[in-house]
Amino acid sequence: MSTEEAISLFRETYASVRSEIGRVMVGQDAIVEGTLNAIFGGGHVLLEGVPGLGKTLLVRTLGEVLDLSFSRIQFTPDLMPADILGTNLVMETPEGRKEFQFQRGPIFAHLVLADEINRATPKTQSAMLEAMQERQVTAGGELRPLPQPFFVLATQNPIDQEGTYPLPEAQLDRFFFKLVVGYPTAAELTEVLNRTTEGGKVIPEKRLDGAGLTQMQGLVRQVPIASHVKDYAVRLVLATHPKTGTAAPISNQYLRFGSSPRGAQVLVLAGKVRALTQGRFNVSYDDIAAVATAALRHRLIVNFEAEAEGITPDQVIAQILKDVPRDSGASV
User: Fold this and answer.
1) Is 57 left (phi over 0), alpha (psi -120 to 50) or beta?
2) CATH number of the domain residue 265 falls in
3) Average pLDDT for residues 143-159, to the nearest whole number?
4) Which of 178, 184, 194, 195 fits a disulfide with 46 by CB distance 3.0 to 4.6 angstroms?
5) Cβ neighbourhood burial of 318 (10 Å; 0-12, 13-18, 19+)
6) Is residue 82 part of a domain?
């Protein structure tokens, strides 16, 4: 298959999946596209928003559109790690003997919906760390690989709501994107009412299987990125590190910690996906800038001054994008 044919196939597949999700989801175009960007880039997604905005519906619809095994974990304060990973149970064999057999938990699926992930205790949240990074779990005394491809799509309510436990920084860093789900417009809300209070339920069709998705992910990694564009991604990440020679002024003022190297990896991979969706086989400065907020917002830790003044990571990133020149010959 030629490069042009591969790009065309990618665009057609992406558009097909996007269109099928649109048959169920109303609006939230940026959220849907961000989720698909992360899936094609091979990463996990954290969807944050107040209840009732369609976060769970989006993930469930994606599970129906992709021909992959799907499981849902409802996180609650009494959920235990074994409820996620699985546990050894005493089972009786046909011969009448009793032996331990490992019963797999819901984490053993291609697509895992971690619903309201910040309602579980830190002990239970930690059960996801190895799975999200290594694509394997340690359970029953053994290392057990997870199905491939493997994605965690997590939803959470805003941290300041009652009965929630903030996700640790190490777990946040494992998410490819953090997408903030906003309220619908009047027109979108009207359409939601039309779809949910009248007529029948729309059943989306399968549009992509695991083998096809793996092929698309392989194509993403083949997309070239020029050294000066890659350097721009590096300088954006370094600009988030306060009290260093590369820090942007706003980082020194409002950040305690900046992005990890994973942030730079996500900028490049997400930029490659965006380039392919637009029919290009190269990454531009605009691709990197377009994905910067979703890629970095959960990797920045603001200081007390920022909290007191109501400065958010999104505002810091927006200013960094203005301050960091695309030409590496210029200075911040």
Assistant:
1) alpha
2) 1.10.8.80
3) 87
4) 178
5) middle
6) no
